[in-house]
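Expect sequence, tokenised fold; for instance:
***
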Amino acid sequence: MMQSIALAYMKANPSIGLPLVGGGTTRGYKSAIDGTTDIGMVSGTMESDLAKWAAKQNIKLRQTDIAYDGLAIFVHPSNKLTNLTLTQLKDVFAGNIQRWDDLGFANGSIQVYSQNQNRGSFETLRNSVLKNKEKVTARARVVDGLDMATAVANDPKAIGFSSLFIAQRPDLKILSISGVLPAQENIQNNKYPLKRALSLVTKTERKELVQKFIDYCTSPSGGQKIIAELGLVTLPSSSK
């Protein structure tokens, strides 16, 4: 998403350079705090240890939501499962349910795939599904970013999670959660339970050039138009 927005912005403003570096939500916060970057990209709240570190240095951050995304839960296309309740989802990822038989489907063990803990998608799962009371099973295989979709697509026993944007591919089956699919309208209307904001964070005092770019990201004719074209959910004022 940010690559597309940055390229459009640089095309309209040839004198501006916007180098992008990935690494997850934790890195987005840390880089904004320590000044490595002007803008951090995040999709969740700051970890407590990082927040304490920022507080000790008397550094406060300013956050601007620019889009919304659903955390998609998906399996191999051969899996007959179509829906999980939040309780079933918690039990699968915590390892309390370890076989597909226990969910009323084909025989075989469940192979859980988890994102790296530095990813905002992991934090969404932890806060919305595990609710900090359970941990992801030690049997889970940890893969990062785009590798999650490929790993699940190649494993008939698998279940995994990622951004809806990444999960929308023909070799994956996206599950409904408590009867609700992560469709754009369901995310916008807060019907889908695994929703997260995609945000930009900066120091409280923003440079003029930084603020101009963030304004572009929230503009209906700028970043919001690109976000809609990519299939993500725009800010409420841009979705009408």
